[in-house]
Recover the amino acids of this structure.
């Protein structure tokens, strides 16, 4: 259904232009609403982009950094990469990534193995599991936050694991046992 | 009776305005209530703490650095969304549908989900019977022996009270950023509060010089 709409809005690239290399969204049409350069994409180009007039229902898997400025209803997984939800981005989706930067809206649980950054005017409703979190004043967040310490930090230097002063979220070692029943539906 | 004391003037949009440019800077001040609250969490990890102040880097960092999990919700914003549109802020709280929406959006958790709750000054903007329903619901989602910290403005004759954003600086110190001057819906003295929390195990008060009644309630 949406394919038809996208094809109307975004004519397919010329045959000479290669498809985006690593983005593995399970869609066959180009995801970007930005003007497509006529030259072939190089490896040094920026992240894959889902433009603001694109709406996708389904699962998105990516092996490169991804910026979403459109609407997604489903799930987004970029295990070793960074997801940026642009100011126009609206996700009704569970998200898994190494790093997540939110400038738009997410309704869904977010797992960021490294860091989540919720910027001013962003909105996130859902449960977060991450190692580090940054929330700017003006951001709206509703949900639970579970700080998962990296296993490496705890196992690599057990002798040095003296608790430091609690000055940052990652300062204190934590067993981080099974999440309590605080937040509904955090078992994604 | 309380409604007579506090005219049911619409609070919206005054309830939840961001600070204007040139607004006073945050001020740090000691808090016995906060100190007692964190004392109740001492030597424990992996607790679940409910925070009604909304997204705040300071509160999140402080609580997660203690090894706890935080559930964050801006309840003043939820109030504004539930009661602030289309009529009178106080009268709207008597609307069963709106009240149910507010309770669902702010306190829809399984029983005994939390080991502590930072309620700040949010309760004083609720009118009866919703206030009692909210307090009772809080009692159900807290585990036995857990603590709840709430603030109530203690100046009975004041027409308006400052609305603050509360941030944790240290276990005994919090930062208050003025958001607005608003008309509290409730004035609660010690006796009113004891009655309000009568289903809880104990209630302890700290009256501060800046007319803020800090209350620690033990479930």
């Amino acid at each position: 259904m949406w394919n038809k709409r996208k094809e109307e809005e975004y004519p397919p690239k010329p045959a000479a232009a290669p498809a985006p290399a690593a983005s593995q969204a399970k869609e066959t049409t180009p995801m970007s609403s930005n003007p497509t350069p006529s030259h072939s994409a190089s490896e040094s180009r920026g992240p894959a982009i889902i433009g603001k007039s694109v709406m996708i229902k389904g699962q998105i898997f990516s092996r490169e950094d991804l910026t979403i400025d459109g609407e997604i209803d489903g799930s987004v997984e970029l295990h070793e990469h960074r997801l940026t939800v642009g100011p126009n981005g609206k996700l009704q989706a569970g998200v898994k990534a190494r790093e997540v930067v939110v400038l738009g809206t997410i309704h869904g649980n977010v797992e960021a193995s490294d860091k989540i950054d919720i910027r001013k005017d962003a909105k996130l409703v859902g449960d977060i599991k991450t190692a580090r979190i940054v929330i700017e004043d003006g951001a709206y967040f509703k949900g639970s936050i579970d700080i998962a310490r990296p296993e490496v930090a705890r196992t690599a230097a057990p002798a040095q694991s003296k608790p430091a002063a609690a000055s940052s979220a990652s300062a204190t070692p934590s067993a981080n046992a099974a999440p309590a029943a605080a937040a509904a539906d955090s078992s994604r | 009776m309380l409604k007579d004391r506090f005219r049911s003037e619409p609070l919206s949009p005054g309830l939840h305005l961001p600070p204007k440019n040139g607004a006073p800077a945050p001020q740090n001040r000691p808090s016995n209530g906060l100190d007692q609250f964190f004392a109740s969490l001492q030597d424990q990890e992996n607790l679940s703490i409910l925070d009604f102040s909304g997204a705040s880097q300071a509160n999140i960092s402080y609580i997660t650095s203690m090894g706890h999990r935080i559930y964050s919700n801006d309840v003043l914003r939820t109030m504004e969304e539930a009661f602030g549109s289309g009529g009178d802020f106080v009268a709207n709280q008597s609307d069963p549908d709106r009240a149910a929406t507010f309770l669902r959006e702010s306190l829809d958790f399984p029983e005994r989900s939390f080991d502590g709750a930072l309620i700040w000054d949010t309760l004083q903007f609720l009118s009866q019977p919703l206030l009692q329903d909210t307090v009772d619901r809080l009692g159900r989602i807290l585990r036995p022996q857990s603590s709840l910290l709430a603030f109530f403005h203690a100046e009975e004759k004041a027409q308006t009270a400052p609305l603050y954003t509360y941030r944790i600086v240290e276990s005994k110190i919090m930062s208050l950023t003025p958001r607005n001057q608003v008309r509290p819906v409730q004035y609660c003295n010690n006796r009113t509060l004891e009655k309000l929390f009568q289903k809880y195990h104990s209630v302890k008060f700290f009256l501060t010089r800046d007319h803020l009644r800090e209350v620690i309630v033990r479930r």
